[in-house]
Amino acid sequence: xxxxxxxxxxxxxxxxxxxxxxxxxxxxxxxxxxxxxxxxxxxxxxxxxxxxxxxxxxxxxxxxxxxxxxxxxxxxxxxxxxxxxxxxxxxxxxxxxxxxxxxxxxxxxxxxxxxxxxxxxxxxxxxxxxxxxxxxxxxxxxxxxxxxxxxxxxxxxxxxxxxxxxxxxxxxxxxxxxxxxxxxxxxxxxxxxxx
Length: 195
What we know:
InterPro entries: His_Pase_superF_clade-1, His_PPase_superfam
Number of domains: 1
Oligomer: single chain
Protein name: Phosphohistidine phosphatase SixA
CATH topology: Rossmann fold
Organism: Bradyrhizobium algeriense
Order of helices and strands: HEHEHEHEHEE
Keywords: Signal
Helix content: 40-55%
Signal peptide: 1-26
Shape: globular
């Protein structure tokens, strides 16, 4: 009985080890696919804002027009956003247009990338805080993505919950999920977690 339990534990360990290795390969493949897509152009890069401690959403009484009332980027988040911008430039990735959620942590992330002019787009507003508007915001975001027919890429700095609503992926802070522009399915092509 004890020998059977040891074999079972070993088999479980081996199985889990196999899954971990497959996940690491998938991550490398996802990154390679994301870089290839961005180099080709015509894609949308959905980026979760960089590190902004304090949980999800914003403090009670926050106002979108007052950064002092919101969760904001930490020093780490500010440094990470700048480093991500440098890495994207180093890889030769350019963006034809850059949009941001109206929340300060997203605007700051997009600006600190130093990749171009940043415009805000209300449809990428925080779907956690604006939960009563979640469906309308997500529909608007899908429509905007479907209209993207630029030869270059579109970068959108937004919130993790928004990216999850669009793609089913819950990204880490600063992570980029690349999707094909020109359709409203928002199917992920690849993912980049830069540092």
